Amino acid sequence: MNDLRYLFEDVKYGTVSARFERRSEPPPDVLISNVNVVPFIGDRAVIIRLADGQYEVPGGTREPDEAYLDTARRELVEEAGARLLNYTLFGAWRCHSTSEKPYRPHLPHPEFYRVAGYGDVELVSQPTNPADGEQVAAVEVLNITEAAEAFIASERPDLADLYRLAAQIREEAQRARL
Q: Whole-angstrom Cα distance, residue 79 to residue 54?
């Protein structure tokens, strides 16, 4: 396992700056705007390839009055055609926006969180690819090394680290149950 340095770097996406932090408990619900899931089928990870060829982790923005776990479930169906069997939160990006208003009116602003967890899934359909969402071209099931390499090839070493960390924590939890 590498040092996961890319995951814990300060990042900036347009008007949003963010920093990933390990968490076993979610931040205050009113501050959660987005949810990501590192999905697993057995010991293999699920990643999505977008229509532009870039690899991404499934997840997205909460809808009004939507519980964050419902966001995870909905996004997995939309982006991976997967059903979430369980979810373990392991971190979150603490975000700050310099925008005058939130991305959507119901979202927290200017401080908010994008939570990240891992979970077992089963593939049940093709991605639904709603018109207003990212268009997924392929769903791939890979070992962790292959998934990390795909993210690195897409110039997303932070997501490679996210998957590595999820696999490490998941493995440790599985060993602890034995």
A: 13
